[in-house]
Amino acid sequence: MTARSQVSTRWVELRELALLFLRLGATAFGGPAAHIAMMEDEVVRRRGWMTREEFLDLVGATNLIPGPNSTEMAIHIGHRRAGFPGLMVAGAAFIVPATLIVTAIAWAYVKLGRLPAAEGLLRGVKPVVVAIVLQALVGFGRTAVRTVSLAAVGAAAVLAAALGVHELVVLGAAGIAVGSSRVVRGSASAAATPFLTRPVEVLPLALAVAVTPFTLGRLFLVFLKIGSVLYGSGYVLLAFLRSELVQRLGWLTESQLIDAVAVGQVTPGPVFTTATFIGYVLGGTAGAAAATAGIFLPAFVFVAVSGPLVPRIRASPVAGAFLDGVNVASLALMGVVSFQLARTAISDVPTAAIALVSALLLRYRVSSSWLVAGGAALGLAFLRH
């Protein structure tokens, strides 16, 4: 292949990544589990850019580093597809649409003093999200759960997650259990404990609100710290934000914080765009940009560092077995989140019908983005009350 054709091929790959993740960033509702399911549908089933095994390995890797899992998956996919330029393009394309949507909502919030209503839209979208995630889980399960022992580890991970055990503990225990069994069976010449090295962050206890002068630089550093250490769900993000912005710095009220987290949950794209909303409320457009850059920057760094290690981990018998355990535990976490989502999303006959029809259409390879758009339209038209 000539240098000119290589450049042309790279531009085609970057354009494909940009178009795909711009669309997903504008339509991917439902949180990280749903986002990852939609990415699997587009990247594995529809485009064949990687195998399901490779995709699962990346899912496991994202669960072992801090930050927004679905954004990190977008960055990983971009890196696999088109190197470092792909890493930047895919990550930015996934973040930008959600950031623009949240900024617009924050502008309306500042002007009106309340959040715009979106109940009907969400009632139509959530059942579609349930169907998308369950379809992905079935496919992942066929790939990841290859033995009885892996099935047992997965079942134990489901139980632990349902009981509220920390995500890192679930992932680490599953990886160590499967990796240790590989050593015991003599599949590797030496046992090595894999790389679960980061401690669980302990939230600081603020006994009283201490109002600190607001600056854009300090805002950026607050969100840079959160993006560098945060594992877990949006509820964990809520705890970090409350500790930093309400209790320690005194920049937000409890009511504003709840509104900010609600916006991150109900808009498409990364849940971490909660930071965009808070930044706008505190510092306008410049504040939104500073907070967004701060919370997402660590994800790009962590993926750039860890991404090249994933194939090496898979090539090692013991480390590969550890990754198998992490993958099964990751599916367990997705399954528990999906069950919790289904309990709230499918509440009556219309929402059950939307979920069922979506599941059937997915079997005929209808794009998940179109299904989300259809669910949103039905919700706005018929499910507003």
Please characterize this protein's 3D structure.
The chain is an all-alpha fold. It has helices at 3-27, 32-46, 52-63, 69-112, 119-144, 148-162, 167-184, 216-229, 234-248, 254-266, 274-306, 309-315, 317-345, 349-363, 368-382. Helix content is 77%, strand content 0%. Helix 2 crosses helix 5. The radius of gyration is 21 Å and the shape is globular. The N and C termini lie far apart (59 Å).
Task: Give a brief outline of the structure.
The protein is mainly α and 385 residues long.
Write the layout of secondary structure elements.
Elements: H1 3-27, H2 32-46, H3 52-63, H4 69-112, H5 119-144, H6 148-162, H7 167-184, H8 216-229, H9 234-248, H10 254-266, H11 274-306, H12 309-315, H13 317-345, H14 349-363, H15 368-382
Helix pairs in contact: 1-4, 2-4, 2-5, 3-4, 3-13, 4-11, 5-13, 5-14, 5-15, 6-7, 6-13, 7-13, 8-11, 9-10, 10-11
